[in-house]
Amino acid sequence: MAVELTMAQMKLAVMRHAYRGQRAQTAGTGATIGVVLAAGTAYLGYLSPDYLAAGLAVWLLGWMLGPVFMGGGDETLRPEYFAMLGISPRRLAAGLLTASFVGVAPLVSLAALAGLIVAGTRVGVVNTLVAVPAMLLQLAVFVLLSKISVAVVGVALRSRIGAIAAGVINGVILSSLGQIWVFMIAFGVSGTPAVVWYLPSAWGLLAVRGQWWALAALAALVLLLLGLWAALLGRRAGRPRVSGRGRRPIAASTAAGAVVAKELRTWSRDLVRNHQLAFSLAYGLWFAASPLVIGWNGMLPYAGPIFIVMAAGMASNLYGTDGTALWLTMMSPGATDVRGRQLAWVATQGAIAIVLTVVCTAIVGGPWPLVLALLPALLGGAAGLVPLVSVYALVPATDPHRRSGNPLRTSEDEGGLTGLAYLMLALVLVTGVPAGLAAHWLGWVGVPIGLATGALCYWLFGRLAEDRLRTHGPELLDIMRTGRKPVTATSMRRFEELSAVQKNVAGVGFGLGAIPLFPQGIVALGFVLAGRTDMSWFLATYLPGPWNSVVAIAFILLGIGLYGSALWVLRKRPEPDRISA
Amino acid sequence: MSQETGPALEIAGLTKRFGDKVAVDAIDLAVPKGSFFGLVGQNGAGKTTTLSMAVGLLRPDGGSARIFGRDVWAEPAKAKALVGVLPDGLAMPERLTGREVLTYLGLLRGMPRDVVDQRAEELLAVLELDSAERTLVIEYSTGMRKKIGLATALLHAPRLLMLDEPFEAVDPVSAATIKTILRGFVAAGGSIVLSSHVMALVEQLCDHVGVVDDGKVVAAGPLDAVRGARTLEETFVGLVGGERAGMGKELSWLSN
After folding, report:
1. Mean pLDDT computed over A341-359
2. Which one of A176, A412, A552, B40 is least enclosed by Cβ atoms within 10 Å?
3. Half-sphere exposure of A563 (CA within 13 A, CB side)
4. A247 to chain B: nearest residue by CA?
């Protein structure tokens, strides 16, 4: 156990240093959201075993897909650190697994797995006791499957074909989850699908409910996965090699042309970007096409717009992923690379989006005004927001030549990366709203509006990003060099001065306000007004009118209330008040 | 050259704090035009921080830096056009080949395409990077990274070179080439500031030297004036080593 305990202590020591300043806040907000979700899952154990099995399946998928989608999972202790110590791969895997249990995410998951104890108490005393080892084994399965899925994708990312294949598979899985109602209708499933009982996430629950063999199966699975992971760890050495083929010479003769040429080459040569592009494309196409399964083609024309939004989310840390290379632009007098990056973004992602949109809309035969209004609006919006968000909310990333054997791990701050991606998704959607509404109400008038807002966003946001880079270049470079954001922002200082209760109000308000406001509020109200009922997780659509509208509006008010109270707590106070506080 | 007025580099009161630690404590330094200036100091003495602030890559908490009389922070475009920089360990456009990096950077600086091509060709040949035409920078060895970094610093014909540890991880043959290039640059009237903790190297190349310790300049001037009758290493240890606890001690389980 010496190796395992030492590694766990190392992890704890690293975490103590890492979770300071802004990252502590991000982690705190993440933990708050996690605890609420965990409490909800545990409550499912009280409601019904079916619900708990389904809930744990979602946790399993979160563990497996989350790190692949963003950040590459926990790499506080890298296998490379121990390469020269002569530890056997299996021992190393066991040690790293033990260290993986130290952290916020495993603790939160363990809280969710307390649902097993809840479920056990509803059956009997022995069942409750069995729930304890079941929880631990179940957590080990979550963590191991997470590590293995990251390792498998990491191996795939050594070659272009692997990178694209992994991106397509991830895109299809994630979009299928988003469209799960389609498949439930298609297969005539109502309530909880039986398949959740076959997933390893339910084995612990099976054991708690008296099928003792499941506990042994869970233990065997842990050993099997540990062996598999140990084998995969051995394949991690070395970074992905790019083929040694001839290179196209750069033909540009201007500064802007040079930036475009550099970006286009990076898009085609960086396998992580290949992976993200394939993911976004598969996600958009599959999300829009999956309702065809139930004979509804109304979503197909939106494959292009969905692709744009997803691709923008993937590129939300554009400057961060290039790391300290920013110094070269800073040392070239008068040079700016924002416009070049925007052009390259439109050239790569825009071309795909246009083809996708035109082809898919032509298949369905419309609605041309709406999609042609959304296309330029979102494309311009995304091309403007990508540089803007990535310089204003830069998440420090590891320099490309210093990354570990895990190509998905571009930053030590995966919470920040994920938050930035979601922020980008929301902001890009907003840039499509004026054109979308205009096209919805006025038809073709929406198209020039979309072109206008797209051009405006492209120009204005690009300009703002340029200004920011010029005025804050040294600060951005410092963040990338040290990997730490300085805690000098006044809002941050104000946050530090709050009492624990106030911090929680702010954290919960900012962390959870989006859920009632957007999916359960605005989106649900949209579905209610469109007359749709029983829509997956949009609560209001299950209720009879007029209660459905009332509930949706109440959710909107709740969301506004949460954001409002968070802002109120963080409001500026006059100096004497702050001193006495 | 009319744009060259004053010393090649003039640093006055440059200060940087990281939290409670004062990394660079009101440093003053003047690098005469045409000199080969060696900045020496222990790890963590503040060499890299000073150089970063002097070229405009790190914002100082106080003080100023002038390159040929141009204030780096007030007139960045004019100052930066005169200086070529090799920072230690920063990223490059990693998915480009060496030639592509030079083409990209030359164009970014607004140089004409034919000039960029001709200089890139010469730099790659002299630094022996032309055999790696198909290799992306991310696949370069540490020594190759230093060499392509040096090439980017030289591309636009600067009048001052600021090089942070330029010989680290560079093989002896390439080091000899780089020394020849740098000596030729100084002989033609250029000025160089080079940081290193290899004293022999500084003695071999530089005519001026500055010793930094704990964020302060403890000695600066012509090499012979600073070292006197001793070697630079002896002088350096005398200046910054003092009575430090760890100096000269052996490890108990490895000796005897």
Report:
1. 93
2. A176
3. 11
4. B134
**What residues are paired with B163 via a beta bridge?**
B86, B194
How does residue A574 score in pLDDT terms, banded at 50, 70 and 90?
Answer: very low
Tokens in use for A320? 């961060």
Q: What angle do CA B1, B6, B8 make, to 5 degrees?
A: 80
pLDDT tens digits along B137-182? 888 888 888 899 999 999 999 999 999 989 888 888 889 988 999 9
pLDDT of residue A498: 67
Q: Quick count: other Cβ atoms within 10 Å of Cβ B65?
A: 24
How far apart are the C-alpha atoms of A205 and A213, rounded to whole Å?
12
- Beta pairing, strands B160-164 & B191-196: parallel
pTM summary value: 0.78
Which H/E stretch holds residue B28?
strand B21-31
Q: How far is A399 from chain B (nearest CA, A)?
A: 6
Mutate to test the interface with A, among B73, B104, B131, B160 (most CBs of A within 10 A): B104
Q: How many CB atoms lie within 10 A of CB A37?
A: 19
Least confident of A325-339, A419-433, B34-48, B177-191: A325-339
Judged against a pLDDT cut of 70, whether residue A171 lies above it is answered with yes
Q: How are beta strands B21-31 and B9-18 bridged, if at all?
A: antiparallel
Helices A368-392 and A446-482: crossing angle in degrees, nearest 10, is: 20
Domain assignment of residue A511, yes or no: yes
| A394 and A507 fall within a common domain | no
Output DSSP code: residue B136: B
Contact between A199 and A118 (Cβ < 8 Å): no
Inter-chain CB proximity B108 and A258 less than 8 Å: yes
Mean pLDDT in residue range A508-528: 75
Model confidence at B1: pLDDT above 60: no
Per-window interface: A 307-346 vs B, CB < 8 A:
322-325, 327-335, 337
d(C-alpha A181, C-alpha A556), whole Å = 23
User: Where does a domain end: A486, A503, A524?
Assistant: A486
Average pLDDT over residues A563-569: 78
Could you tell me the pLDDT band of residue A576, with boundaries at 50, 70 and 90? very low
Domain co-membership, A169 together with A100: yes
Q: What is the pLDDT of residue A487?
A: 54
**A494 and A472 housed in the same domain:** no
How, if at all, do strands B9-18 and B62-67 pair? antiparallel
Pair A171, A299 in one domain = no
Measure in Å the smallest separation between the Cα of A486 and chain B Cα atoms: 9
Overall domain count for chain A: 3
CB proximity A122 to B under 8 Å: no
User: Does B81 sit within 8 Å of A333, measured CB to CB?
Assistant: yes
> What is the full DSSP assignment across A189-204?
--SS-GGGGTSGGGHH
Segment (H or E) for B83: strand B83-86
DSSP-assigned letter for residue B39: E
Collapse the DSSP code of A516 into the 3-class scheme (helix H, G, I; strand E, B; otherwise coil) and give the result. helix
Give CA–CA dist A133/A139, Å, rounded: 10
Nearest to A21, CA basis, from A473, A482, A408, A410 = A482
Q: How far is CA B113 from CA A254, B103, B117, in A?
A: 8, 8, 6
pLDDT of residue A572: 55
The dihedrals phi and psi of A539, each to the nearest 5 degrees, come to -50, -45
ipTM confidence score: 0.87
Q: Is residue A203 domain-shared with residue A288, that is, in the same domain?
A: no
Q: Residues A434, A371: one domain?
A: yes
Give percent of chain B above pLDDT 70: 95
Question: Quick check: helix, strand or coil at residue B66?
Answer: strand
